[in-house]
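Lecture notes, part 5. Sequence design as translation. It can be helpful to think of inverse folding as translation between two languages: the language of shapes and the language of residues. The source text, in structure tokens, appears below.
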């Protein structure tokens, strides 16, 4: 029997659990402090279960908080890759990252810790993706793209080669990014343009 705990029992957590099953985990526990039918984190720690934890929360700030909480208690954070995903030679995938179905990550790309590479995204060669980034379904990043920590690239967006997207930045769904986008910015459109500054 191969056990894992998914921290977060939302819809995203259920998708992470499916990927865990496909990686051979046949005994899956859910941890969620907000749903009484699941184990709270405190109870999970008290049970002293020697099993890895995968993060099942989509929100980057919450995911970072849960990651720090797990590390403070010495828990092992699992990285999960869907069997249908393609990771080329030279790809580095950080601790706690989840790579979902049909995603493609090409050569010499560095993915930070606790990222979400969502369904059918394409990350081309020589990309640098920061920590706690969410690449939404069907996003396409051309070669040499850099994305800062905590940023979110909305569903179906395209980023042309060599572009830098700053940290704590949100790119709206369906955007075509042809110029660099600074830190703490909400931007969207075709072409993608800064809309407003984000304060958190």
């Amino acid at each position: 029997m191969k056990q894992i705990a998914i921290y977060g029992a939302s819809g995203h957590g259920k998708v992470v659990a499916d990927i865990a099953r496909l990686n051979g985990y046949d005994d899956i526990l859910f941890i969620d402090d907000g749903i009484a039918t699941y184990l709270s984190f405190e109870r999970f720690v008290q049970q002293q279960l020697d099993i890895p934890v995968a993060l099942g929360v989509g929100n980057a700030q919450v995911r970072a908080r849960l990651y720090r909480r797990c590390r403070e208690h010495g828990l092992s954070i699992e990285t999960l890759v869907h069997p249908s995903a393609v990771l080329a030679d030279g790809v580095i995938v950080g601790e706690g990252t989840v790579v979902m179905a049909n995603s493609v990550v090409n050569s010499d790309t560095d993915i930070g810790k606790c990222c979400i590479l969502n369904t059918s995204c394409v990350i081309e060669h020589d990309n640098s993706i920061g920590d706690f980034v969410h690449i939404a379904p069907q996003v396409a990043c051309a070669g040499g793209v850099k994305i800062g920590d905590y940023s979110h690239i909305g569903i179906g967006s395209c980023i042309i080669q060599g572009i830098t997207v700053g940290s704590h930045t949100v790119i709206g769904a369906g955007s075509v990014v042809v110029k660099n986008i600074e830190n703490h910015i909400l931007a969207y459109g075709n072409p993608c343009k800064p809309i407003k500054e984000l304060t958190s």
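The translated text above is only one of many valid answers, since several sequences can fold into similar shapes. The two ends are 42 Å apart (CA to CA).
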